[in-house]
What we know:
Blueprint: H1 2-20, E1 27-31, H2 40-51, E2 56-60, H3 68-75, H4 100-114, H5 117-130, H6 143-158, H7 163-176, H8 181-207
Parallel strand pairs: 1-2
Amino acid sequence: MQKVQNKNRDLISSVKKIQQYGFEVQGGFIVGFDNDKPNIFNRMVSFIQESGIVTAMVGLLNAPKGTDLYKRLQSEGRLTDEFSGDNTDFTMNFTPKMDRKELVSGYESIISTIYSPKNYYDRDLNFLKSYHPKRPAKHDINPGNIIAFLKSIFRLGFFGKERRYYWKLLTWSFIRRPEVFPMAVRFSIYGFHFRKIYEGISDHAAVI
């Protein structure tokens, strides 16, 4: 366990170093491996939040046909269906070692947690505090971007359930780091988009 914690700290340190040089780290995360234990869900949430990876896409493990994983699971008699092609639709095409209900429930807890307004905006702030490019980013101010900003004020700032966190992030960036203000707006819009996607997937999974 200590080795895992040390490895996570090293990974987070590496992500932070990349961010400090002016790069945004995006991450794809998978749960459902044979060696995953029930604590994987909390560990993944902690890593994503602490690292400040704003765009964190999480999916369930599947075995695409023709891969070594597919061949191994086939030889073990664990394949159940064909891979849907979407590892975020709550389906798996094999029998996992962890109880399937526990795994799906844990997966849902990850995405509902990391894309909840508080956690998502905390992650935005975490990233923007670490983001220090050597050269200031050039932002294209055009009618389309201005309209998107005004729409975000209306939808997120006035009527969105995230409005408290929206204004907190925009106020902080405008006063403390005005050069990242456009990014703060963009991330706010991204967060709304991500939540809608995952809420739709969760609703669909509840019907299945």
